[in-house]
Design brief:
The protein is mainly α. Helix content is 74%, strand content 0%. Helix 1 crosses helix 14. The longest helix has 26 residues. The two termini are 37 Å apart.
Length: 335
């Protein structure tokens, strides 16, 4: 065996070992809790009235409600429920592949892109606080994993500076992706809006053409308003007696962020795969040339803004419910 190939072989074994079990256990998956309740509601009310009732009386997640209205349990297809985790896992991989392919040097070989994607995919599976609620619990996967997958297809459009490469149909796709994210989860659309606003400021400061990023920001704000102002959000908040406490929500968000960060970085599997990533990833392989990177103090400001955005997102469930955020909320923060 060539000793030069040893790191590659070890890395491949680590990646396969980290990924395969997640696919294998999918066929032991069974519905629970909201999966059964929502499916029964759809059969009782019909898809259209279920989506309308959800928006008015439960929350603004209209796209999630649409996906829930056509899930396999509605049609008594129990095996389809077991296939859903496999579909979400595959879509996550494809989203990561698209994400990396668009941002990496085009001279990088396709087999290396597949390797990078598998490595990043394995890392994500290891850092999730609750893979069960991320991929195997249908409701959690629809409302939290789905918008993350959509972001992977949207983000390359956001960070590419040259808007002359985008045609009118690209803008239609961007608008639809944003509205799907907004209709999936209010936390995720606020994340998109926060990041887009930061990039918009960067392009103004560097005197770049701001049409594309302004277009994305406007649709992000529209999507945010549609979901945040939904009557169902406030009806749901009234169910929790301790909601609306600002100081407690801020302190709770800060503590939760620290716990999530520590939980990620102490995992042996995460550390092993991170070392594998460091062995292959290089700054030269990336082709991101955004105005944000041209700002003088970005090395200090970007991590700070990122942390503030994440803490702000954790603030929302504390403020809305007055309780520790569920694990599926921690999943999206970790991602």
């Amino acid at each position: 065996m060539n000793k030069k190939n040893l790191p590659i072989i070890v890395s491949v074994i680590l990646i396969i070992s980290a990924i395969i079990p997640f696919f294998a256990i999918s066929f032991y998956n069974y519905p629970s809790a909201d999966d059964l309740v929502y499916s029964a509601d759809v059969r009782l009310m019909g898809p259209f009235w279920y989506i309308k009732d959800s928006y008015i009386n439960w929350g603004g997640r209209y796209f999630s409600a649409l996906l829930e209205a056509i899930n396999p349990l509605v049609y008594n297809f129990s095996f389809g429920y077991k296939v859903l985790p496999v579909i979400f896992l595959i879509l996550t991989y494809l989203g990561l592949y698209f994400f990396i392919k668009k941002l990496i040097d085009p001279q990088i070989k396709k087999k290396n892109i597949f390797f990078y994607t598998a490595l990043l995919f394995a890392l994500i599976l290891q850092i999730l606080p609750s893979p069960v609620e991320g991929f195997y619990w249908m409701t959690g996967a629809i409302e939290y994993t789905t918008p993350f997958i959509i972001i992977l297809f949207l983000f390359p459009y956001i960070v590419q500076n040259n808007d002359t490469n985008l045609k009118w149909n690209n803008y239609i796709v961007i608008a639809l992706l944003i509205l799907c994210i907004a209709g999936s989860n209010e936390i995720v659309i606020l994340l998109v809006t926060g990041i887009t606003f930061l990039l918009w400021i960067a392009e103004i400061l560097t005197k770049k053409n701001i049409f594309k990023i302004s277009f994305i920001l406007v649709f992000s704000i529209i999507g945010t308003l549609i979901v945040v102002l939904a009557p169902g959000n406030y009806a749901r908040m009234d169910m929790f007696s301790k909601h609306g406490q600002i100081i407690e929500s801020i302190s709770g968000a800060l503590i939760s962020f620290i716990k999530i960060a520590l939980n990620i970085f102490v995992k042996p599997s995460f550390l092993l795969l991170s070392f594998a990533a460091l062995a292959y990833f290089s700054k030269k392989s990336l082709k991101i040339k955004h105005s944000l990177l041209e700002l003088k103090y970005i090395i200090f400001l970007y991590p700070l803004f990122s942390i503030l955005i994440l803490i702000s997102l954790l603030f929302l469930p504390f403020y809305a419910m007055g309780i520790q955020p569920p694990m599926h909320v921690n999943n999206i923060i970790s991602l």
